[in-house]
Amino acid sequence: MLNFDKLSLNIPDTTKPRVVIIGGGFGGINLAKKLSGKHFQVVMFDKQNYHGFWPLLYQVATAGLEPDAIAEPLRKMFGSDDYEDFHFRLVRVTGIYHATNTVATLIGDLQYDYLVIATGTKPNFFGNEQIQRYSFPLKHIPDALNLRSQLLQCFEQASMTKDQEIRHSLLNFVIVGGGPTGVELAGALAEMRTHILPTDYPGLDFSKMNIYLIEGLDRVLPPMDPKSSEKTHRYLEKLGIVVKLSTLVESYDGLTVMLKGGEQIKAHTLIWAAGVSGALVDGLPAESVERGRILVNPFSQVIGFNNIFAIGDIAFMKTEKYPRGHPGVAQPAMQQGKLLAKNLRRLIKGEKLEPFEYLDKGSLAIIGRNRAVADLPGNLHLSGFFAWIIWLFVHIMYLVGFRNKLVVISNWMYRFFTFERGTRLIIRPFVRKGDKSARDFFKKYNPDS
Amino acid sequence: MLNFDKLSLNIPDTTKPRVVIIGGGFGGINLAKKLSGKHFQVVMFDKQNYHGFWPLLYQVATAGLEPDAIAEPLRKMFGSDDYEDFHFRLVRVTGIYHATNTVATLIGDLQYDYLVIATGTKPNFFGNEQIQRYSFPLKHIPDALNLRSQLLQCFEQASMTKDQEIRHSLLNFVIVGGGPTGVELAGALAEMRTHILPTDYPGLDFSKMNIYLIEGLDRVLPPMDPKSSEKTHRYLEKLGIVVKLSTLVESYDGLTVMLKGGEQIKAHTLIWAAGVSGALVDGLPAESVERGRILVNPFSQVIGFNNIFAIGDIAFMKTEKYPRGHPGVAQPAMQQGKLLAKNLRRLIKGEKLEPFEYLDKGSLAIIGRNRAVADLPGNLHLSGFFAWIIWLFVHIMYLVGFRNKLVVISNWMYRFFTFERGTRLIIRPFVRKGDKSARDFFKKYNPDS
């Protein structure tokens, strides 16, 4: 077997300034792309070997897209043909030693001239370990595959029981969080209920399948314009989704969702889309961190440092227009990444840095077939079919990689004309952390695996 | 959590004869399709919820196709719209009680009028537990995803070590078994070595990457014509694959492949494509089983029974032309499934059954870009570009589902023109059965998962 002591980062020595980027998300890849050329050696660390296009993750979970369609291998994006001094390492960063300009990983340390933290976010369970244990988050590709298997297995199991109470609870799906992920997932599930499931499971009565969308604030899509929220709410109800506003979840034991106030919902599936927190890296002083995110100045410099930067969701840049930071979507990360590349070039030339100004290109959310909402610049609010067309166009446009675009367009056209969702395979075991009974169930069903 | 005692098969009562099919492979689906109509109630059991197109599995393992492209959900194939009395159950069959015409599953028993065993095969390690533990089989979709992750992780790790010996061993890939799976996999790996890997891993010297293909008999593709074997052998060597004929593997401890005769190869990856054995079901008398397969008469009836049948790879039908049974490929299974549907109709009408006669449509194997071999009916042997075109055409034609055809054609066209393989994502943990160090390594790298 592999002797792990024999592994090392193996980054070639260089006379160029070395930029170390932690994370291959929207911020990291846009920065890395623009840094190509003769001026820098660029090193990227990530725990995954691919960049994921997370806005489409809910479609993987609802069997509309294959996981490979929304992810692009990082090494493919920065292949040596067009990018000479780029070095990707599939390794976890364990900490920063800023006194010595060193970043530590599991297999060794590396000195940097410039360090960029672009680690994004992780699901936030607000300290509720029980919910963390039993709920399904939707943050990474394995999450989406787990959720897809869970949804399908619930239907399979529901068709294999005569116990009304159990069947009812298998067909109850509770989504916590009324942001884009929650809304889009609820819409996709409702579409499945209408178009796919009755044909796949003729023995089940899908009028008994309930989709709950639970939001703590007083409207869905709270970051969007109230008009769009209202429109979305109406769309959701038209699709038969039970929307509960100003409602908090108190606990979930894998079977009963307890809402604050005493109401209970029996459900085998709770999807947690209620919030995220920054994926922090150890080693920054306390004064550089606020509310789980890293404080930066308008040049993305971490407060207290000249050569450490943070971009994207992990960065907390307070500006007059955005006193609570920029929205946690792809656009600020992409724009910050691109600007930082320019600023790093200025920095080595001794030029003045350009402050970041967020160009808001608008927000979009889709609620099933032919229905979407869009807040566009200039206080323009669209909904319905036209917003839906914009949503499709924007998501294809920003999708990385020609192959991915091709596969996604093929899938969407196929779905549009057939109402089908082709990828409803159960390929991952139904194993939840700490859920022994589920693991036993799987083993019982798959003794060879 | 789910109370498993509350699960039951839940198959509606019927006055029609009930056909129970175990397995949704090539035999099972062709039988089930042809049984639609008013005459039978059809029940299908499978441990997976999809039908897999296994001839393309090696392309999933080598990042050429997404897993969802080569699999079709069984419920989608037999949707209620066109098939009224069909019932799929995702459940493992535990045994047959032929005295009472009953099949037992994990969640209950079911009486049958006709039982069809179409369970196919499983990898055969010939009792070598060490090889079973450390090698990578290639039989199911999770196998292909595991192998894909393993291949990519070997390259990632090789680029993170300065230890020559370890790097060498990470870049040695040993494929055991010179049948179609082994040959096609070796070819695909060699193509990756030429076209993808040098760009992805500029720090690695791929002239040090070795692909071994080890076959126990005296030629590759033993079921094909000797001319095709010879041609294939030359193609493989042209691609730089080390072919070792008349060579047996004695042991493998995860690091050293010991060949019979004393030669050793240091390799982190051993792919086991050396053989399969029947996936038997408990409960048949010993006289119905020979060499791990179920003995059947020319009507696919299991020896000793009138209402139990076996089709496809699990069936052992001795005929004059095929005294050792039919080849273990898709065609005999498909043809037997179709004929059995006809014969079951004849059976309920009291008509005479038609014996099976295998129509050999030929054999094909692909050895990378533009190169394939084909044995066609009429003793016609093709090789090179024309055989390659036939291979592509046949595989697209037999692929189930319009969406799958579309996705596979998109991928192949993309690959043909760009030399790229888009789906090289590591999405499954590198965990081998019993390999604690690998599990620890993964945990260390992915503490949150």
UniProtKB/TrEMBL annotation, chains A, B:
It catalyses: a quinone + NADH + H(+) = a quinol + NAD(+). PANTHER family: EXTERNAL NADH-UBIQUINONE OXIDOREDUCTASE 1, MITOCHONDRIAL-RELATED, NADH DEHYDROGENASE. Its EC number is 1.6.5.9. Keywords: FAD, Flavoprotein, Membrane, NAD, Oxidoreductase, Transit peptide, Transmembrane, Transmembrane helix. It comes from Pontibacter qinzhouensis. Belongs to the NADH dehydrogenase family. This is NADH:ubiquinone reductase (non-electrogenic). Residues 18-337 form the FAD/NAD(P)-binding domain. Residues 361-417 form the External alternative NADH-ubiquinone oxidoreductase-like C-terminal domain. The chain crosses the membrane at residues 380-400. GO terms for molecular function: NADH dehydrogenase (quinone) (non-electrogenic) activity. InterPro entries: FAD/NAD-bd_sf, FAD/NAD-binding_dom, NDH-2, NDH2-like_C.
